[in-house]
Specification:
By secondary structure, the protein is an all-alpha fold. The protein has three helices and no strands. The chain has one domain.
Length: about 80
């Protein structure tokens, strides 16, 4: 009895794995160019600068801790 359940479970896993492999292979590849990777230094500087400008434009006090956190996250 347990053997039949194990074989059924192995069969289900194999079928699910096969279906996932087919779906991943058949998905369309759009090949869009990557514009501004978060790992790029200029891009991360622009993010921090833009964040500071937005915070200044809304007349909120820009804390250095929030800017340091943002710099840490994008670098």
């Amino acid at each position: 009895m347990i053997r039949e359940y194990m074989l059924a479970l192995i069969g289900l896993v194999a079928v699910a794995w096969f279906i996932l492999a087919i779906r991943n292979h058949a998905s369309p590849k759009l090949n869009f160019p990557v514009v501004g990777s978060p790992t790029d230094r200029d891009f991360s500087k622009a993010l921090v600068e833009g964040y500071a400008k937005v915070r200044g434009a809304t007349r909120m006090r820009t804390s250095s801790a929030s800017l340091l956190t943002l710099e840490f996250l994008v670098s």
